[in-house]
């Protein structure tokens, strides 16, 4: 069969992992290995798409995977992938895998629209099931079918900006064991590859950020701007553990995609993500633990906003004053006994600040002491020397917050958080390395 007779097959899958083990990207790694051994033609890097991080039942980073290939035998390829999804899904511990196939050179716009919604809204599994039927998508699922949401979205995702991630995988005998990686080598890697990689090491805490802590198969994940920068970075890292291999994904991590939509009164539903611009309408409250809550007025409606201590920017929020204009991005928390719906902010952009004017009793120029009021409309008098004054004085107090963008500290970043070094950066390079340097099983 000629290459022109091959079929383009888009494969999307999600929710194959659980808090107790496995990983959707590891399944992708195994599927790519199988397809590679069959001399399948890959049309792009595997895609790792992070969806709305505020979904309460997500596992870890709420990531789904899609793969686009050309195959001479799509039926056989689909059967093998279905078998592997069954084998590598942790359904015993609550995984609800979803698998979707689309045989087409063109991804319909309705899949892109579905994907955009999944970035910032809650989409029910019932909606996803109905979507597959309405659009004649071949789909398979186990459990409650929640994985269909990510499976559809991963195929439909349309990149405006992207990053890359190299994930290295452990041998099965090492699953669940402590990861041992040289702290100095991670620090060295970050210094040598900046700004082509990001969020690898927290210099303030001396903490490694590339290695997960759970029992899943991932040993480390390096995020960056290109495949070449990641391959260079991984050569700097040092570990005593013999790893199974690695694979590079094209991803929306570090793009802030989930916060591009504007939150309004109409879409301010629980678990929605987005951004909102408004004017501070009260004095911020600092609660026990250092969490700061304040209200803003936006388009005629008032909303509670919160910045939590672990972000490292709650103290800045405590210095806001009534009348300050801000833009914040985050997720909508469901109403509780103490608060109406709250927008849990992931960043704070201070647009404008009011002048802080303090009114106080006048000071005696001779005694340098504050005068006391003589009574209503009777002026002020120094209790030491008897000098008088008619009215209070005003003074401008320097603000302790600036007009700037405040991001959470690096250890509090979510997968989708756009780091400071990527502000203003848009990566639209679509060149795909067909040499398969992006995929490697060590020892083969």
Topology:
Elements: E1 7-14, H1 24-37, E2 41-42, E3 47-50, E4 63-71, H2 74-88, E5 98-103, H3 109-120, H4 125-134, E6 138-141, H5 147-156, E7 163-170, H6 183-193, E8 197-198, E9 201-202, E10 207-208, E11 218-224, H7 227-234, E12 243-251, E13 273-280, E14 285-286, E15 292-298, E16 301-307, H8 314-318, E17 325-333, E18 342-352, E19 357-360, E20 372-373, E21 380-381, E22 388-389, E23 393-396, E24 405-406, E25 439-441
Parallel strand pairs: 3-12, 16-18
Antiparallel strand pairs: 1-4, 1-5, 2-4, 3-4, 5-6, 7-11, 7-12, 8-11, 9-10, 12-25, 13-15, 13-17, 14-15, 15-16, 17-18, 18-24, 19-23, 20-21, 21-22
Helix pairs in contact: 1-2, 3-5, 4-5, 6-7
Structure keywords:
single chain; 444 residues; alpha+beta; Alpha-Beta Plaits; Glycinamide Ribonucleotide Synthetase, Chain A, domain 4; OB fold (Dihydrolipoamide Acetyltransferase, E2P); 4 domains; eleven-stranded mixed β-sheet; five-stranded mixed barrel; 8 helices; 25 strands; 19% helix; 28% strand; elongated
Brief overview, please?
With 444 residues, the protein is of the alpha+beta class. The protein is built from eight helices and 25 strands. It has four domains: 3-158, Alpha-Beta Plaits; 163-251, Glycinamide Ribonucleotide Synthetase, Chain A, domain 4, CATH 3.90.600.20; 257-355 and 397-415, OB fold (Dihydrolipoamide Acetyltransferase, E2P) (Beta Barrel); 357-394, no CATH class.
């Amino acid at each position: 069969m000629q290459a022109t007779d091959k079929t383009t097959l888009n494969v999307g899958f999600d929710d194959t992992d659980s808090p107790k083990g496995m990983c959707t990207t590891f399944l992708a790694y195994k599927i790519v290995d199988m397809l590679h051994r069959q001399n399948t033609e890959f049309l792009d890097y595997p895609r790792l798409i992070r969806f709305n991080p505020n979904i309460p039942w997500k596992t870890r980073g709420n990531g789904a995977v899609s793969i686009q290939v050309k195959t001479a035998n799509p039926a056989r390829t689909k059967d093998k992938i279905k078998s592997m999804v069954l084998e590598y899904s942790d359904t015993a511990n609550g995984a609800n895998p979803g698998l979707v196939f689309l045989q087409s050179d063109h991804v319909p716009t309705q899949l892109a629209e579905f994907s955009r919604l999944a970035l910032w809204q809650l989409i029910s599994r019932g909606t996803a099931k109905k979507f597959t039927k309405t659009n004649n998508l071949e789909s398979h699922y186990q459990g409650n079918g929640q994985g269909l949401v990510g499976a559809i979205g991963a195929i439909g995702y349309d990149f405006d900006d992207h990053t890359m991630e190299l994930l290295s995988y452990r041998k099965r005998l090492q699953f669940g064991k402590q990861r041992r990686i040289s702290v100095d080598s991670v620090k060295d890697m970050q210094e040598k590859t900046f700004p082509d990689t990001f969020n690898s090491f927290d210099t303030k805490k001396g903490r490694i950020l590339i290695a997960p802590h759970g029992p899943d198969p991932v040993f480390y994940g390096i995020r960056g701007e290109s495949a070449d920068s990641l391959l260079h970075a991984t050569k700097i890292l040092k570990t005593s553990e013999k790893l199974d291999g690695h694979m590079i994904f094209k991803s929306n991590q570090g793009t802030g995609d989930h916060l591009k939509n504007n939150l309004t009164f109409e879409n301010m539903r629980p678990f929605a993500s987005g951004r909102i611009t408004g004017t501070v309408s009260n004095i911020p409250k600092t609660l026990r633990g250092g969490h700061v809550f304040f209200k803003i007025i936006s388009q005629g409606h008032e909303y509670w906003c919160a910045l939590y201590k672990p972000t490292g920017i709650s103290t800045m929020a405590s210095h806001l004053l009534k009348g300050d204009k801000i833009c914040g991005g985050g997720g909508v928390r469901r109403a509780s006994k103490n608060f109406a719906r709250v927008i849990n902010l992931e960043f704070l952009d201070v647009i404008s600040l009011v002048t802080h004017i303090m009114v106080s009793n006048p000071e005696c120029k001779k005694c340098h002491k504050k005068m006391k009021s003589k009574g209503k409309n009777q002026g002020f008098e120094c209790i030491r020397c008897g000098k008088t004054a008619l009215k209070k004085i005003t003074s401008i107090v320097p603000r302790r917050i600036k007009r700037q963008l405040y991001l959470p500290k690096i250890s509090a970043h979510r997968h989708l958080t756009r780091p400071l070094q990527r502000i203003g950066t848009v990566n639209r390079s679509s060149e795909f390395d067909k040499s398969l340097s992006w995929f490697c099983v060590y020892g083969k």
